Amino acid sequence: MLKKISLLLLTICSFQLLSAQPNPLTRFPKGSTPKEIGKQLAYHFINGKHELYDRSIHYAEVCTWNGALDYALEVNDKKLIKHLQDKFEPLFTTEKALLPPMNHVDYNMFGSLALKLYQITKDERYKKMGLEYADTQWTLPANAKPEQKSWADKGYSWQTRLWIDDMYMITVVQGEAYKVTGDKKYLDRAAKEMVMYLDELQRPNGLFYHAPDVHYYWARGDGWMAVGMPNLLRMMPDDHKDRPRIMEGYLKMMKSLKNYQQPSGMWNQLIDEPTFWAETSGTAMFTYAFIVGVQEGWLDAAEYAPAARKAWLAMIPYIDQRNNVTEVCIGTGKKNDKQHYNNRPRNAGDLHGQAPYLWCAAALLGE
After folding, report:
1. Where is the active site (predicted)?
2. Per-residue pLDDT tens digits for 311-321
3. Which CATH number fits domain 29-365: 3.30.70.1140, 2.40.10.120, 3.90.1010.10, 1.50.10.10?
4. Contact 220, 341 (CB under 8 A)
5. In the prediction, which pLDDT does 123 show?
6. Where are the domains of the chain?
7. For the residues 295-303, what does the mean pLDDT come to?
8. Residue 160 pLDDT exceeds 90
């Protein structure tokens, strides 16, 4: 009897000790807290000029804007929200020419920003604009090419191109449309598309080639998938028919990424090349995917929370005194040449890097 009591007490003490352990995704050292970093990067974004892509707002700016809004909501910074609204307001009038056309996956994702602003402000102008971007992603234009018509006939977006980037670009605008309207068609569109991309593009090791004919695991390319999957899963009810397949793809990718994380906490420009340079945008995207997975209970906290913390702390020194994230690979097209990836220029302040840092800060604050 005494032995049983002793074992019971030992079990209780062990449980209490484990429960008392600090959460690795909280209590960061001064200078590296998500609140500090998020504020630095979000206010830095406000004063920046528009980043243009073929004379219209670049998708990387939209990603950064969304991240700044998410951060502002987490810390209830009404002043920041107002600044971000003010930055958008000219797009209704004097800067209307900068609105992206509704004819490409990278352009239509702009609607996600308008829809996010609608959820904050309830200003119908944002809703009208955002839904138009979401709906035209599935409305076949009169001048559609045969391949685009073929995708539409199968129930997919006519903008489908089987680039891994699309699984952020398509899912983000369709997902925000679902949040705004509650109309399941938007969620179903995104989920159907995601399942098809997973079936077509995910490799046996869980990662994704930059292109079917370019067999390299480029960090930021894979990052779009790493972010798109958990963001979509967060919206999906447990009984959605596509949820198991997407969860399978997500968990498979996370396991592989965990194995390729460098001792420093970073991931490299090519994920599986240990001698390549550490790249910040891909690292931040993978870190975000870990954070969300731990918070939602999809990933084992004992294994993935310390990895996410290590990555976050490794990311901070790459922010320079001007609040620019450094070591961001510039926009990169596919090329069947490994050295091409190692030689890519690295920008400071490139919004491809600023955005996922903000996503991580907001996610950590949502713990």
Report:
1. 106, 165
2. 999 999 999 99
3. 1.50.10.10
4. no
5. 98
6. 29-365
7. 98
8. yes
Residue 153 bears catalytic tag: no
Q: Which two tokens stand for residue 253?
A: 């990718």
Q: Give the lowest-confidence range in 15-19, 82-86, 328-332.
A: 15-19
Tell me whether residue 300 is one of the annotated catalytic residues: no
Q: Please report which confidence band the pLDDT of residue 21 belongs to, taking 50, 70 and 90 as the band edges.
A: low
DSSP state of 183: -
Q: Give me the catalytic one of 54, 77, 86, 106.
A: 106
**Half-sphere exposure of 24 toward its Cβ, with a 13 Å CA cutoff?**
19
Q: Helix axis angle, 78-88 relative to 34-46, nearest 10°?
A: 30
Q: Which residues pair with 268 in a beta bridge?
A: 278
Query: Which residue numbers belong to the known binding site for substrate?
Result: 106, 165
pTM here is: 0.94
Bind-site residues: 106, 165
73 half-sphere exposure, CB direction, 13 A CA radius: 17
Catalytic residue among 165, 166, 222, 350: 165
